[in-house]
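User: I'm new to structure prediction. If I give you an amino acid sequence, what do you actually give back? Let's try with this one:
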Amino acid sequence: MMESTNDLDVIELTPTSPTAGIAEDCPSPAQPEVLDVIDGPLNHSYQPVVWHWFFLKEIDKTKRIWKPFSMLDSVALDETFQLLSEGKIATEEAIVKTDGGRYDVDVSRRLRTAIYWEETPLSVRRCSWFFKGSLETRYTPYDEDMAEKLEEEYHNSLTNSLWRRVLEFPLGNKIMFQNPNVLLDFSNYGPVDDWTQVTEGQIRPLIVKRGIDGFDISDGEKTVIDHLIFLVHGIGSVCDLRFRSVVEVVDDFRILSFQMLDTHFPTAVAEQRIGRVEFLPVSWHAPLHGDDTGIDKRLRPITLPSIPKLRHFANDTILDVLFYTSPVYCETIISTVAHELNRLYKIFLQRNPTFEGQVSLGGHSLGSLILFDLLAHQPLVSNQEPGDDILDEEAVSYVSDLNDPTVEEVCQVLQLGEHLVKFQREQFTFSDLLLLSEEDLASLGLPMGPRKRLLTYLRDLEIRRAKLKQEDGNIPAHDSTVSYTIGLAGTGQPSISYPLLDFHPAAFYALGSPTAMFVTVRGIDCLGEDFVLPTCPKFYNIFHPYDPIAYRIETLIDVNMVNVPPVIIPHHKGRKRMHIELRETMARFSADIKERFFESFRSTWSTVQNLTTFRSSMPPGYEEESQCTDDLDTSNSDESAAAEKPAAVESVIRCIGKLNGGSRIDYVLQEAPLESFNEYLFALTSHVVYWESEDTMLMMLRETYAGMDIHPDK
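Assistant: Good question. You get back a string of structure tokens that encode the predicted 3D arrangement of the chain. For your 714 residues, that looks like this:
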């Protein structure tokens, strides 16, 4: 029987009508619910549906899915929606910060826009009704008008017991209201009353869901931000083997930090002594390969047509290493990273005016080398307070002054007062300093750190003066060229102008870093114990034991650290992995067995000696055998000492230069049990493991909150 209600075509189903057999004719995941509920009593009281806001998210640039906002964000969006609907706020005022302030949602236009990075604005939707296919795992929300009509008809059906009917909506949707628990969408099915013409492969009806029960919805991010960490990616536009961008991996890295805070800092979280750590991605790959540089356009005609995907991967990813060593593109990369850091920091302060925490930096692979070079070339500011993050323009005015400073002023700025007497003894002027090479400074007795600091300052000062003169019109504009700064050996480092950062980082985390290798290739055999990052007091070199790109830093500071293993990062569950403990136990057990064997041998030989009555009657070869026994004793002692050497030496280590305030620098992750079977098989994955490593995240959080005197629960 057909009737029309509220401009909807209604088909009432009877037990004898063809559509009554839908459960048998069209099997679907909802079929068991049909059989269980259809003949039972339908005692349901109507409860208004809960509306929740969802946003469209792009996955791999080929797929889009709808994801729910957090409860905190959804409530804020709905409050703004209600105010806008009632006319209490203007359209341009209907902007809501979501996702911890990283996105803005325009409620009137239903658009979600990224704040810190470039991203296509995508739709948001106020949702209450959803659908999905029988083989799909995610629900898709109906549009808001359709959801309101469905809710209206659901209310009508529930209050008047109008079930077993199909409603045809104006937009073509055909929704069957079988009972309160079973609703199906036949929009793509064809005529719903022609069950005798079902063809093989017929599309199954869509499953309809009311409300947000069953969705994984978080409570929302804490509003208080304790610390800010910028993360710089390595080579290429993707950061892991799942081909995710730096924005995606940092998103998961941030979520990992929430989990680690909840599981390892529960007391501090419960007492509200900590909020959260914000992680923001820094991208430099797109500007390098953009139209401004034209590098991709230049590479295209010289690239061979064979194996195009592999060659595109090489041009887009591997060549980034060569670009950074190029005097033409190195400054582009450095300038891009510095500009992005300053831009993101400025935006962050604007959106978080009450932020009082510190800032740290993290870099993966080549990104860590970029940050290392940038931090190594930051000038020291004598009148800068340790707690200040933003550099005062007057404090760095010395780099833009065209007048020559005195040698005393240079030593004061660079904190080289203890070496001033060496320059005064030679009667050096500032002009003389400009003529000194690294070999000259080394002959004066300046350690590696101070002389590198002085050479960097002099070079940057000359470059800035040249730019100032050019801006004043004293020097005609010309194509900039970048020269190399040659070390005592090697290819050297591009001599470029390193921009100033608007903040002083509290710590620098290098993940899978090739920094030590690049420094060595530049001809620097040893950084020296006096080497520091002028504006960054802490430096942590974190790596996986099988990472082929990672290198140690401590041995570059002190060659005696070669035999000292890096610090093992504790497992996030509070102990060493079982296979590592087993391996160490077996090593100690083997050393103990050898010691017992040689002790028994010595005891036996001593007994034989005591049985000899007269020394003159001793066998001729006794002296040699005795010496052999002593050698075995010495060898055994050496092996036992070697077994205990790492722990003993590590306990003696107290100060390793000034780079990390004298503390250890190299930290190694524990390999997984499966990885220990074959190092080569997992070499590639070990270089990108940091983005998903709970141990790495826990160490960063531990070091971050240690400065606030907050420690993980034991």
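You can read the tokens as a compact description of the fold. Here is one thing that stands out. The chain has a mean pLDDT of 79.
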